[in-house]
């Protein structure tokens, strides 16, 4: 399953340049849930374009919400689920343990020495290549973590 997830991440990242859409799209494609327009809604979410919450976290949390969350009908019927919050907490704890933070700019600073590309064109090119490599690995790790959580909870066979 991981190979299929990674293939889907590698499909999305080069043309979206968006870790939120790439993580969500890969999970959606592999686990086959409807997205209700979430892929499109994730357009501004790679670090909120300001280095805030990592887009891989955002995309994965949206997928967990779709798989384990409560619909309006569930809530009206008194069947509010706590599974989505439990899965999200587990995912975020594991992600933070692996990557030191949930915040894009802090992760990039930790991994690359800076959250922003240097002004020098040569240094900027090396920084961008490093960012692409690190962010690809990070999205792979995030979707693999979610797939593990889904498998533990019995919500799909991938």
Walk me through what this model shows.
The structure is a single chain. By secondary structure, this protein is mainly α. The chain has one domain (2-153). The protein has eight helices and no strands. Helix 1 runs antiparallel to helix 8. The longest helix has 33 residues, at 121-153. It is elongated and about 60 Å long. The model has no long low-confidence stretch (mean pLDDT 91).
Name the descriptors:
158 residues, mainly alpha, 8 helices, 70% helix, elongated
| Amount of beta strand | under 5%
Number of helices: 8
Low-confidence residue ranges: none
- Helix proportion: 55-70%
Instruction: Please give the radius of gyration in angstroms.
Output: 16 Å
Mind summarizing the main beta sheet? none
Task: Work out the count of structural domains.
Answer: 1
Number of separate strands: 0
- Oligomer kind: single chain
Along the chain, the helix and strand elements come as: HHHHHHHH
Distance between the termini: 6 Å
Structural class: mainly alpha
Summarize, please.
With 158 residues, this protein is an all-alpha fold. It has helices at residues 2-16, 19-31, 38-41, 55-68, 72-76, 83-99, 104-112, 121-153. Helix 1 (2-16) packs antiparallel against helix 2 (19-31) and helix 2 packs parallel to helix 4.
Layout of secondary structure:
Elements (H helix, E strand, L loop, with lengths): L1 H15 L2 H13 L6 H4 L13 H14 L3 H5 L6 H17 L4 H9 L8 H33 L5
Helix pairs in contact: 1-2, 1-8, 2-4, 2-8, 4-6, 4-8, 6-8
